[in-house]
Design brief:
With about 300 residues, the protein is mainly beta. The protein contains three helices and 19 strands. It starts with a helix and ends with a strand.
Length: about 300
C-alpha cells in the first residue's frame, strides 16, 4: 500500500500544478459515467476525487457534484484511512463525509459503473457535510443517470418488511422500489424501534444502484414521517372490505360524525366526504395502487391501508 506522507505530498503537488501521473487520467464522475449506459473509460485506469456519500465497508459511493451522472460506486477493500487522533485512533475504511482522491480501473458490473482495483489513494479531508440527495419519485429513480448518486424518496409507504438480507420495498403513486439495508432509530427518542413495518411512511435516503434491469436504493438513512401500524389510534373496530377493492369499499365500525379522505401514496387526497356511522366509497374510477383511508372523528384519527385493483 502506498499511502504515506510522501505520496500524499506528491499527489497534492500534482493536483495543485495541474499535472497528472502518466498511468492515469484525472476525471470527474460525470466524465467517467459518460452519460451513457457503459462508461467510455471501461477497462482504463483513471483518477477521480470526490466526497463519500454512503459507505458499506469495502463498498462506498462518491460524488463530486449532486444530481444526474455525478456519482460513482467504488470497491476498495485495500483502502484504509490511517489513525487521526483525537478524532479516531485506529485505522478505518472510508466513511460518509471523507474526501478522497482515488486511482483505479473502471469496470462495468451488473449495470453499474464501478471504480475497482484501486492502486493509489490520498485522504484529503473528513467530516464534510453531505446533501440530502436529489428528491425523486420511484419512477424517476429508475434511470441510468442517477446510478451511483445520492437520492431521496419522500414520502414512501413501506410495502414489505425487511427480510433476512435486510431487503424491503416501498411505494409511492408512481411505483414500487427495493431498499437494501435497515436503520433502526433510537427507541429512547420514541421513534421506530422496530424498524420498517408495512404501512409506515418514511423519507428514505440512499445511493442508487443498478441490479440487472432494476434500480434499488442502498439505504443511507430514513426519517419517520408517519408510523401507521401499531398506533393507539388504530385500536378500533374499524373494518374495511373488500380489500383489495375494485368497486364499492365498505367502511364499518365508525361511531358518530366523521370526515374521511382517501389519500394516494404521496399523501394527496383523491376522494373525500363526511357522514355518520358506516359508509361506502366507490373506488371504481381510482387508478390501481396503494392508498390510505383517513377518518377524522371526535377523539382521534383512524388510518388504514387500502389496495385498489
Amino acid at each position: 500500500m502506498r499511502n504515506n506522507i510522501i505520496q500524499g505530498f506528491v499527489a497534492f503537488s500534482l493536483i495543485c500544478f495541474g499535472h497528472q501521473a502518466s498511468w492515469s487520467q484525472m476525471l470527474t464522475c460525470a466524465e467517467i459515467q459518460g452519460q451513457t449506459d457503459v462508461s467510455p473509460y471501461e477497462g482504463q485506469q483513471v483518477t477521480v476525487s470526490g466526497k463519500v456519500t454512503e459507505f458499506f465497508g469495502d463498498v462506498w459511493y462518491i460524488q463530486d457534484d449532486y444530481g444526474a451522472w455525478n456519482g460513482l460506486l467504488c470497491v476498495g477493500p485495500n483502502v484504509v484511512i490511517d489513525p487521526n487522533p483525537p478524532w479516531w485512533n485506529d485505522p478505518r475504511q472510508p466513511e460518509v463525509g471523507d474526501v478522497l482522491e482515488l486511482t483505479g480501473t473502471i469496470v462495468e458490473a451488473d449495470g453499474n459503473t464501478q471504480l475497482m482495483d484501486i492502486t493509489d489513494y490520498v485522504f484529503i479531508d473528513f467530516w464534510n457535510a453531505t446533501a440530502a440527495g436529489v428528491g425523486v419519485t420511484v419512477a424517476e429513480m429508475m434511470d441510468e443517470s442517477l446510478e451511483g448518486t445520492r437520492a431521496r424518496l419522500d414520502p414512501v409507504t413501506v410495502m414489505t418488511a425487511p427480510d433476512g438480507s435486510s431487503v424491503w420495498t416501498v411505494s409511492d403513486a408512481t411505483g414500487t422500489a427495493t431498499i437494501i439495508g435497515v436503520d433502526v432509530d433510537d427507541p429512547g427518542n420514541n421513534e421506530d424501534a422496530d424498524g420498517p413495518t408495512p404501512g409506515d411512511v418514511y423519507r428514505v435516503y440512499g445511493a442508487v444502484r443498478q441490479i440487472g434491469d432494476d434500480y434499488v436504493l442502498d439505504l443511507g438513512d430514513i426519517d419517520t414521517l408517519s408510523l401507521v401500524v401499531g398506533l393507539e389510534e388504530l385500536e378500533t373496530a374499524l373494518s374495511i372490505y373488500p380489500n383489495p377493492a375494485s368497486g364499492l369499499l365498505n367502511v364499518t365500525g365508525i361511531q358518530g360524525d366523521h370526515a374521511w379522505s382517501l389519500m394516494d401514496a404521496l399523501g394527496r387526497p383523491v376522494m373525500h366526504g363526511s357522514g355518520t356511522g358506516s359508509f361506502q366509497i366507490d373506488v371504481s374510477t381510482a387508478p390501481s395502487g396503494r392508498y390510505t383511508l383517513q377518518v377524522l372523528q371526535e377523539g382521534g384519527t383512524l388510518r388504514q391501508a387500502v389496495l385498489i385493483d
